[in-house]
Amino acid sequence: MQDDERPLTGFALSLRDLWDKAGAPATMKELADRVGYPQPRLSELFNAKRMPSDELLGDVVHALNGDTAGWLRRLKTLRVAEEEFQAAAARQGDSLEARLARAEELNKKLLALTSHPGSVVAQAKAADEAAAARTLGATNLETQARTLLTEAIDQFRQLHERIPIVQRQADSIIADARAVADQYLLEGRTQQELIVREANDRAESIVRKSLQEASALKQRTIRETKAQREKAAASVDRLLDGADQLRSEAEQFVQQAETRRSNLETRAKIEIDRIVQGAIKRLEAAGATEEVEMLELLLLDFSINDSHTQVRGRHARRPAPSVPSLLNTPPDTPQPQVAPVEPAPVRRWSPRWGFPPQRG
């Protein structure tokens, strides 16, 4: 961070020097754990992003072994100087110096965002980029499928449109043949039979050839259309199979995460119950009945008590020894002696229980 002659910036630089001289804590996370404030709030303090409160500055200076009273006096002076600085900046208005100062402030903010990949903004940006990449991939797959389907439809339409053209050509050829035959008939009766025969033969040959060509073209059109349709359908099926596989994998991941969360939650309840039961036994042996009742109420509040009575092994629920309540008992009443409870034998762990044994 560079000194831009702003009072708050100089104050943050002095606070950084205090941290360097203290030597500990070494990281912002350790400092946040020590003073009890979130890391973003401490980052604003050390990067001159926000005027600190008296409580925050006092706790931070105390954690860095500094003079708390002296720094609080400096904070009062800083507030006055910062107000004067802001007033002077407001009087300058849209001067070149003011625009440069705002640009410098914006550059600092952008630098802070880009130089802290662990911050919430960087994480949100990474998550947004990942979501955008997945959306783009899905969009590309959909576009490819639509393109293939459109091409198949266009080819089918083109082939289908060629059939009437061939039919019209055949009709035109037939009409020409008939016109030639009529012309030969008009030339004379002497050559009528020959001309008619030749014309008929030629017309039949032309018609036969035209019909054969039309039939072949129709069959080829049908085959090509069927092949294109099957190709497009196969492409769409592959894309759909890929999408179904991705969705199935996502559902498996979600189910595995839910199972792991449930197992961890059960193990946590078992471990808490085991610890509290041990504490109850030790308190019962010491005669602290009120504390025992408070711990049992705590188990009920956390929905732990009797929540896993079917668990086997060393985590199984065992009934606590009956201890007479000391509440509402006169002070002079002799208390009954409670015999010590022998610990239950520890059973060996079995894989069918579903979770590994834990060390006590």
Describe the structure.
With 360 residues, the chain is mostly helical. Among the domains are: 7-120, Orthogonal Bundle (434 Repressor (Amino-terminal Domain)); 146-255. It has helices at residues 7-22, 28-35, 39-46, 54-63, 68-92, 96-114, 120-187, 192-286, 289-301. Residues 306-329 and 346-351 have low confidence and may be disordered.
Write the layout of secondary structure elements.
Layout: H1 7-22, H2 28-35, H3 39-46, H4 54-63, H5 68-92, H6 96-114, H7 120-187, H8 192-286, H9 289-301
Helix pairs in contact: 4-5, 7-8, 8-9
Which stretches are poorly predicted, pLDDT < 50 over at least 5 residues? Answer: 306-329, 346-351
**Fraction in helix:** over 70%
Question: Radius of gyration from the CA trace?
Answer: 45 Å
CATH superfamily of the domain at 7-120: lambda repressor-like DNA-binding domains
Let me know the number of strands.
Answer: 0
Describe the oligomeric state of these chains in a short phrase. single chain
Strand content: under 5%
